[in-house]
C-alpha cells in the first residue's frame, strides 16, 4: 500500500523538473488496482486494505487531485467505486494532454538525452524533511554535500541561514553565535530552513536560529588521509609553514605546534574542534566517551566520507528525498598530482597525534554500518548505490564537456573556477556547450563552486543588502583604481626626471638620490598590495 502520489510538499511549487516537462503522477498502489482487486473478489475494499491505509489515503486525497467525496470508503457501494475510476481516468487524461502540448511547444529546444529525466525511485510514504542543520567539517567531502543542500533549497525557495555580508563561513573558528546569521538580529527573516556553512558547533546558539524539528547531521573522514589533505591545503599555517613535508612535522609535532597561535587548530584533532570540543583535551577513555555521547545526542546521522555513496543513500532515506536530490559531482576536490602517499610509520604517528579524532571516527564508522544493517541491509544498499552511480554517469555524460573534472587552468568559464588555496590544485568542470536552457541551469547548479553558489543564494535572499554591498565594493574598486593611477603617475614622473638628469645633468651622486626617492615612492604601494 502507499499514498496516491508523492508526498513531496513542494510538488505544487515545482511542476517542472530538468529534462521532463511535467511531473508524472506517481503511485505505489493505484486506486484502480485496489478497486479492481476488490471487484474480482466481490468484496468491499475494507476486506483487502488495512484501515490505516484507508485513513492515510483519505487525508491525502483532500489535498490532491481527487476530491474528498471520491475517497474510497468501505461503507460505499460499487457505484462509488465506478465514480472513482472515472475520476482517476479523467485526471490521467488531463495530465497527458498538458504534457503533450508542452512537448510540442518545446521539442525544438530539448536535447535528445534521457539523462535528465527525473529518477525518483519508489514513492515513499514519508514526507520530505526541509528543516536541516549540516555541520560542515573540513576536508571531508563536505563541499559536495553543501552543493546538494544548496540545490535542494534553491529549487524549492527555502531559506538558508547564511553568514553576514556575503561571507562564506559563520565566523569560524569562533564558536557559532546566532547573530552571525544574516537577518537574525534585524529580524528581517521570519524563519530559516537550512544551515550548512562552516561553523564551530554550539548547539544552544544553533537552536536559537533553527526550527525545533530540524534534522542534524554531519560527516567524518579517516583522520589519516584527512591529515595529509589538511597539510596540503593549510600549508601556510604556523604549524606547517616551516617544515618541508608532513613526515618532518610528525617527527616532532610539539616542536612546531603552538595551540595559542592563530589557525593552528587545523593541525590537531580538527574534527573534535569543529564539533565544538577541546582539540587539545585529554584523550582519556572517559573524555572520549563523553564526546561521543554528546555527538550522538545532538546529531541524528553521522556520515562517513570513505563511503560517500552509501552515505548519500542513508541521507536520502533519512530525509525522505529522491535519488536526484542527492546525486552530485565531486566539488573542491584535489588533483591526484598533489596527493602524497603515506608510509605505515606516518599513519601510526597520525593516529597518535590525532587520537581524539581517530577514536570518534572509529566509533561512528561502526555505527554507520550498524545503521545500514538495521534499516535496509547490505544487499539493498548495493542496489541503491549502483543506481546512484549510474545516475551520476548519465549526468556527467550529459552535462560535462570532458565527461569529468579538469585542472583549474583548463576551466573555460572563470565564474565556475573553484577557489585555489595552499599547495592543493582544486579541480573544476566545463559545461557541455550544447545544452538547452533548462538542462544547462540544472547542470550548472551541479558544478557551481561553494563560494560562488553562496553569493548567488545571498543575493537571492537579501537583494537590498546585496545591492548595498555591491555598491560599496564598486566604490572601493574605484577608489583603489584612482589611488593606483595617482601612484603610477608619480612613479612615471620620477622616472622621467631621472632619465632627464641622467642624460643632461647631475652626476652619479645625484642619480643615487633620485633612485632613493623612487624607492620611497614605490615600496609602500607594493607592500599594500600583498594579500
Tag the structure with descriptive keywords.
531 residues, disordered N terminus, 4 strands, 19 helices, four-stranded parallel beta sheet, mainly alpha, disordered C terminus, 50% helix
Describe the structure.
The protein contains 19 helices and four strands. The chain has helices at residues 31-41, 51-61, 78-106, 142-155, 203-209, 223-233, 246-251, 253-256, 270-274, 285-298, 308-319, 323-326, 344-353, 355-375, 378-399, 437-447, 450-461, 463-504, 508-528, and strands at residues 132-135, 194-195, 215-220, 301-304. The chain has a four-stranded parallel beta sheet, sandwiched between helices. Strand 1 (132-135), helix 4 and strand 2 (194-195) form a beta-alpha-beta unit. Helix 1 runs antiparallel to helix 3 and helix 18 runs antiparallel to helix 19.
Write a brief structural summary.
The chain has helices at residues 31-41, 51-61, 78-106, 142-155, 203-209, 223-233, 246-251, 253-256, 270-274, 285-298, 308-319, 323-326, 344-353, 355-375, 378-399, 437-447, 450-461, 463-504, 508-528; strands at residues 132-135, 194-195, 215-220, 301-304. By secondary structure, the protein is mostly helical. Helix 4 links the parallel strand 1 and strand 2.
Amino acid at each position: 500500500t502507499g499514498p496516491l502520489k508523492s508526498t513531496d510538499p513542494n510538488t505544487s511549487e515545482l511542476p517542472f523538473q530538468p529534462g521532463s516537462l511535467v511531473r508524472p503522477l506517481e503511485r505505489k498502489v493505484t486506486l484502480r488496482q485496489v478497486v479492481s482487486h476488490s471487484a474480482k473478489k466481490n468484496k468491499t475494499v475494507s476486506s483487502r486494505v488495512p484501515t490505516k491505509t484507508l485513513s492515510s489515503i483519505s487525508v491525502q486525497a483532500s489535498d490532491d487531485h481527487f476530491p474528498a467525496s471520491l475517497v474510497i470508503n468501505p461503507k460505499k457501494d460499487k457505484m462509488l467505486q465506478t465514480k472513482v475510476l472515472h475520476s482517476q481516468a479523467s485526471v490521467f487524461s488531463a495530465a497527458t494532454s498538458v504534457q503533450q502540448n508542452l512537448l510540442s511547444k518545446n521539442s525544438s529546444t530539448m536535447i535528445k538525452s534521457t539523462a535528465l529525466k527525473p529518477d525518483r525511485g519508489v514513492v515513499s510514504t514519508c514526507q520530505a524533511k526541509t528543516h536541516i542543520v549540516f555541520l560542515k567539517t573540513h576536508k571531508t567531502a563536505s563541499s559536495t554535500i553543501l552543493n546538494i543542500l544548496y540545490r535542494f533549497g534553491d529549487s524549492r525557495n527555502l531559506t538558508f541561514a547564511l553568514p553576514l555580508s556575503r561571507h562564506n563561513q559563520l565566523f569560524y573558528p569562533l564558536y557559532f553565535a546566532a547573530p552571525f546569521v544574516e537577518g537574525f538580529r534585524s529580524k528581517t527573516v521570519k524563519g530559516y530552513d537550512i544551515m550548512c556553512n562552516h561553523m564551530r558547533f554550539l548547539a544552544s546558539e544553533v537552536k536559537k536560529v533553527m526550527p525545533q524539528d530540524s534534522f542534524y547531521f554531519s560527516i567524518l573522514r579517516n583522520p589519516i588521509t584527512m591529515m595529509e589533505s589538511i597539510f596540503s591545503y593549510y600549508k601556510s599555517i604556523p604549524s606547517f609553514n616551516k617544515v618541508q613535508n608532513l613526515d618532518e612535522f610528525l617527527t616532532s609535532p610539539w616542536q612546531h605546534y603552538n595551540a595559542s597561535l592563530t589557525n593552528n587548530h587545523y593541525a590537531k584533532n580538527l574534527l573534535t574542534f569543529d564539533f565544538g570540543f577541546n582539540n587539545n583535551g585529554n584523550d582519556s577513555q572517559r573524555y572520549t566517551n563523553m564526546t561521543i555521547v554528546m555527538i550522538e545526542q545532538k546529531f541524528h546521522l553521522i556520515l562517513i566520507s570513505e563511503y560517500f555513496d552509501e552515505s548519500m543513500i542513508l541521507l536520502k532515506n533519512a530525509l525522505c528525498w529522491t535519488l536526484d536530490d542527492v546525486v552530485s559531482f565531486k566539488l573542491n576536490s584535489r588533483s591526484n598530482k598533489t596527493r602524497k602517499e603515506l608510509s605505515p610509520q606516518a599513519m601510526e604517528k597520525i593516529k597518535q597525534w590525532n587520537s581524539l579524532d581517530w577514536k570518534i571516527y572509529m566509533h561512528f564508522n561502526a555505527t554507520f554500518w550498524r545503521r545500514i544493517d538495521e534499516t535496509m541491509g547490505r544487499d539493498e544498499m548495493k542496489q541503491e548505490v549502483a543506481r546512484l552511480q549510474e545516475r551520476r554517469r548519465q549526468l556527467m555524460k550529459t552535462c560535462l564537456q570532458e565527461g569529468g573534472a579538469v585542472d583549474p587552468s583548463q576551466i573555460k568559464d572563470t565564474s565556475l573556477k573553484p577557489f585555489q588555496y595552499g599547495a592543493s590544485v582544486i579541480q573544476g568542470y566545463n559545461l557541455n556547450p550544447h545544452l538547452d536552457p533548462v538542462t544547462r541551469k540544472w547542470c550548472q547548479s551541479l558544478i557551481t563552486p561553494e563560494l560562488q553558489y553562496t553569493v548567488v543564494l545571498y543575493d537571492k535572499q537579501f537583494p537590498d543588502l546585496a545591492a548595498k554591498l555591491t555598491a560599496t565594493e564598486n566604490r572601493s574598486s574605484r577608489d583603489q583604481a584612482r589611488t593606483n593611477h595617482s601612484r603610477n603617475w608619480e612613479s612615471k614622473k620620477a622616472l622621467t626626471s631621472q632619465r632627464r638628469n641622467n642624460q643632461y645633468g647631475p652626476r652619479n651622486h645625484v642619480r643615487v638620490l633620485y633612485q632613493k626617492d623612487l624607492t620611497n615612492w614605490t615600496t609602500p604601494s607594493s607592500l599594500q598590495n600583498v594579500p
